[in-house]
Amino acid sequence: MTLDKLETILNNAGFIDIDIERKVVSDQYAAKWGIDDVDLKHYLRSSTITAYKL
Fold it and tell me: Can you provide one Gene Ontology molecular function annotated for this UniProt record (predicted)?
């Protein structure tokens, strides 16, 4: 899911002041998926989402 789409979903659900902080996953975490041919660090992200709902 793109960052814009996630923010739109949260906004449509009534959240405001949305902040999404993305981080690249570690090599160790990416290796758990067991796909050797693909560098999953280009596709997987860890995110911290902060938002408020009135």
Answer: methyltransferase activity
Cβ neighbours around 25 below 10 Å, total: 16
List, in sequence order, every residue forming a beta bridge with 16; answer none if it has no partner: 52
State how far Cα 25 lies from the chain centre: 10
Q: Number of helices and strands (H, E) in the chain?
A: 2, 2
pLDDT in tens, 9-48: 999 999 999 999 998 888 888 878 767 777 777 778 889 9
Amino acid letter, 31 = A
Q: Which residue has the tokens 């449509």?
A: 12
State the pTM of this model: 0.68
